[in-house]
Amino acid sequence: MTTEVVEFHRPFQLSPRSGPLPAGHYRVDTEEEMLAGLSFPAWRRTSMTIARHGLASGRLVQALAITPRELATALASDRMPS
User: Fold this and answer.
1) Residue 69 covered by a domain
2) d(CA 46, CA 82)
3) Where are the beta strands (DSSP E) in 9-56?
4) Is the model's pTM score more than 0.85?
5) Is 39 within 8 Å of 50 (Cβ atoms)?
6) Is 70 helix (H, G, I), strand (E, B) or coil?
7) pLDDT in tens, 7-27
8) Rounded Cα distance, 18 and 74, in Å
9) Which of 36, 60, 64, 81 is most open to solvent, judged by the fewest CB atoms within 10 Å of its CB?
10) Angle at Cα 25 formed by Cα 21 and Cα 26, nearest 5°?
11) What pLDDT does residue 57 have?
């Protein structure tokens, strides 16, 4: 599993199913499994989630399954001038 933290400067929406999400820091977890039987190491993504934690408590507030495309689109949109 790999984890990265991304920051959104403005409220955003990943897809119609997610509804609007507030600006802030989000943890993105990507789970992968190694493909067996190949002559070289290769990995396949099995899931990707984005999670928001409460500022004061650090407790999980919301977690959503996402695709790399949804994340890239939301981040690109966030970086565009308003």
Assistant:
1) yes
2) 35
3) 12-13, 20-21, 24-34, 43-53
4) no
5) no
6) helix
7) 999 999 987 777 889 999 999
8) 12
9) 81
10) 70
11) 66
Q: What is the domain count for the chain? A: 1
Q: Is 17 within the bounds of a domain? A: yes
Task: List, for residues 34-52, the tens digit of each pLDDT value.
Answer: 888 888 888 888 899 999 8
Q: Give residue 47's domain range.
A: 2-76
- 78, containing H or E segment: helix 68-79
Read off the amino acid at residue 74: A
3-state secondary structure of 74: helix
Examine residue 23 and state whether it is found in any structural domain, yes or no. yes
Strand-by-strand arrangement of the 2-8 sheet: 2-8, 24-34, 43-53, 60-65
Strand, coil or helix: 82: coil
